[in-house]
């Protein structure tokens, strides 16, 4: 599946991979959507629900780091997650624990679910942007590297100032998830407490 991507996923391809007949696969899943949901449930079964920590912020931070690191190993699953129509029920305990931590930190339930959603979107966006698939190079450089190196400093003076930090030859900037999550959590908690 990971070699050809999700578009190539069919009951027949799974059966071929398992050296079985398509009908035998149908004994376990009714259709492609059921297969995708089962695959997603296999991934979300590993979400960190029970975590160490003496306070809600520590547990929430640990849980979000764990979510990030876990999903980084299953980038293909992000396509299923972002399709919007599949919800693995075994992910509910993770969401419930995170929402509970926000409530314990003094946020109203509506602010807690909003804050959880913001953290979830940070994780998804960071993984999609900072953990790309295989690099495509032409003439030894990626299109990204060429575009950044050829940028006109007169047109984009501020962007040019950070090119050395970006190091276009290395792909996207290094993962800043821990730093960004810390900033986001403190902002959400401050805003949520202020609105109560």
TrEMBL record:
<feature type="domain" description="HTH tetR-type">
    <location>
        <begin position="1"/>
        <end position="47"/>
    </location>
</feature>
<feature type="DNA-binding region" description="H-T-H motif">
    <location>
        <begin position="10"/>
        <end position="29"/>
    </location>
</feature>
<protein>
    <recommendedName>
        <fullName>HTH tetR-type domain-containing protein</fullName>
    </recommendedName>
</protein>
<dbReference type="Pfam" id="PF02909">
    <property type="entry name" value="TetR_C_1"/>
</dbReference>
<dbReference type="InterPro" id="IPR009057">
    <property type="entry name" value="Homeodomain-like_sf"/>
</dbReference>
<dbReference type="InterPro" id="IPR004111">
    <property type="entry name" value="Repressor_TetR_C"/>
</dbReference>
<keyword id="KW-0804">Transcription</keyword>
<keyword id="KW-0238">DNA-binding</keyword>
<feature type="region of interest" description="Disordered">
    <location>
        <begin position="131"/>
        <end position="153"/>
    </location>
</feature>
<dbReference type="InterPro" id="IPR036271">
    <property type="entry name" value="Tet_transcr_reg_TetR-rel_C_sf"/>
</dbReference>
<dbReference type="InterPro" id="IPR001647">
    <property type="entry name" value="HTH_TetR"/>
</dbReference>
<keyword id="KW-0805">Transcription regulation</keyword>
């Amino acid at each position: 599946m990971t070699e050809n991507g999700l578009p190539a996923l069919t009951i027949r391809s799974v059966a071929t991979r398992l050296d079985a007949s398509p009908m035998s696969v149908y004994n376990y899943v009714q259709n492609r959507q059921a297969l995708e949901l089962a695959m997603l449930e296999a991934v979300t079964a590993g979400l960190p629900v029970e975590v160490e920590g003496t306070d809600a912020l520590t547990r929430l931070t640990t849980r979000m780091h764990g979510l990030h690191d876990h999903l980084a190993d299953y980038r293909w699953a992000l396509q299923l997650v972002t399709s919007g129509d599949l919800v693995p029920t075994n992910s509910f305990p993770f969401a419930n624990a995170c929402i509970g931590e926000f409530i314990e930190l003094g946020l109203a339930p509506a602010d807690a679910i909003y804050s959880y959603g913001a953290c979830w979107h940070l994780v998804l966006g960071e993984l999609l942007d900072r953990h790309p698939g295989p690099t495509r190079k032409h003439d030894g450089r990626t299109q990204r590297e060429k575009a950044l190196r050829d940028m006109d400093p007169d047109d984009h003076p501020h962007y040019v100032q950070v090119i050395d930090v970006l190091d276009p030859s290395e792909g996207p900037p290094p993962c800043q998830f821990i730093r960004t999550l810390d900033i986001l959590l403190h902002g959400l908690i401050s805003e949520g407490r202020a609105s109560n």
